[in-house]
Structure formats: C-alpha cells, structure tokens
Amino acid sequence: MSGLVLATETTFDVPGNVAFAVLAVLMVVAAIRVVTTRNIVHAALWLVVVLGGNAVVYLILQAEFLALTQLLVYIGAIIVLFLFGIMLTRAPLGKSDDLDNNQRWIGAVVGVLLLVVIGFSLTRSWGTDRLDFAAYDLPQVSGVTGTSVQIGGSGNGRTQALANEIFADYLIPFEVVSVLLTGALIGAIVLARRD
Amino acid sequence: MLLNQFLLLAAILFSVGVYGVIVRKNGVLVLMSVELILNAVNINLIAFSTYWGLGGQVFALFVIAVAAAEVGVGLAIVLLIYRNRRSVDIDQLDELKG
User: Fold this and answer.
1) pLDDT mean over B47-51
2) In which domain, by residue range, is A192 found?
3) Are A128 and A143 contained in the same domain?
4) What does pTM read for this prediction?
5) How far is B34 from chain A (nearest CA, A)?
6) Does residue B36 contact residue B16 with C-beta atoms inside 8 Å?
7) For FRET with B60, which of A90, A120, A169, B14 sits at 20 to 30 Å CA-CA?
8) A22 touches chain B (CB under 8 A)
C-alpha cells in the first residue's frame, strides 16, 4: 500500500525504479537457476549473470569503484577459478541428477523462513526510508589533512573520498587484508601442491 | 529510491544462497552458493553506505578481498578432496560422525 502512495509522488524516480525492477527479477531468477540447475557449467554461467547484476546495482547506488572492482575480481578472476575447479575435479559436464542431496525440503523451508524473518524485520525497521543520492553530488571532498579539495564538476568525488577513507581511517585493516591475501595465496599453493 | 528495495533484493539472494549451501552436494557448487551469500551482503553494505557514509564501501571492498581468498583456498581444498577420494561429494565426507 505504501508503495502505491510513493508511486504517485512527484519525486518518484520512474526510470531508476523500472531499471531496478528488471534487474532485480533477472538477478533473482539467475540466482535460483544457480542453485537448481542440473548442469554444473550452467550454474557457473548463471552466476556470471548474478555477479554482473550486482555490479549494476552498485552503479545504481553510485559506487562506481566498487562496480568496476566487482567486474574485475568476480567475473574476471573468480568465475575463471570456478570453471577451472569444475574441469579439474572432472565434474559431469552434461546434465547430472547427482548434484543435490535429498534435503530439498529442509533447504526450501530454511530459505523461506529466513526470507520471511529478514523481510519482516527490514520492513519494520527501515520502512520507507529513502536514499538521498543528491547528498553525494557534493563539490567538496575533505582531504587527509582536513583541508578541502575542490573537485567541482569532475564527477569522481566519491572515488576520491573512498581513497581518502581507505588510506586514512582504514589503513591498518587494509594492510591486514594484504597479509590475509598473502596467507591465502601461500595456503592454496601448499594445499594444491603434489608432494 | 527506497533503501528497503535494495535490502530486500539482498535478502532474497541471501536466502537463495543458503538454500544452495544446504541442498547442493558438489563441493564446487557449495562454494558458488557461498559467493551468492557474500554478494548479497555486499549489496547491503553499499546500500547502507549510500544511506550513511562511505565506510560501507570500504567494508564491501574488504569483503571482496576476503571472498577472493576464500575461493582460492576453498577450491584448493576441493581439489585435494578430489585427489584423495576421486569425488567431490561432500555428503560422503562423514568420518567425523563416529
């Protein structure tokens, strides 16, 4: 009901919402195909649709840097890794009835219950809160030393602000993530090596 | 646009991912379902970063990095299971049941 009231307001962003609706339906259908398809290679390819849709959602949310990172890391690297994993484990490349266990009902019940609980609490707590995109068209970004950097009109304000956040407030977590990636790299090599 | 439409999309993707983790028995497919869950969390983080401030985007970047590490190690483990047992059926890995 509240959705109908919102749709009649003058601030309702029709193209944005239509784009979001098409994208959301596509992503949900692709995600369901990932977990239900009987062909393991198709599952990886449907996953590409979900991850690409994720990147577009980030673009709608004005997170350009994250959208490009998503494309590079997920579609560029992780999907290729999955396809290698499928080939190296000699998975059945055609249709196979042996991909699911016999717990489909438990899985469906858990999934629907989780969705009902999360959806109920989300609608209760966030209701009709709006995203204020205009707040991020600020021409000013505060620099590391507290000085303001004038970047008016260049349109890369949020990426610049994100860089300032990472390399000022979140510098130590950033370094820890580098150590984690090194550890994962060494661990993967040690595990996969033939002795 | 509402904050909730992004959060609800993420909730649906999260639930589908949980269904996949429970139902699939091929190790690679379970890792794919985990990717679905991590991506749903990222949508949440970025929606909240548009709502509050840039911290959410920083954490989404960290989640992407951790997901890359997780897939690398996870696939190495799956390969090792395949090498030892000639199968990646994780329902057969039940030695801890006693």
Assistant:
1) 89
2) 137-195
3) no
4) 0.86
5) 11
6) yes
7) A120
8) no
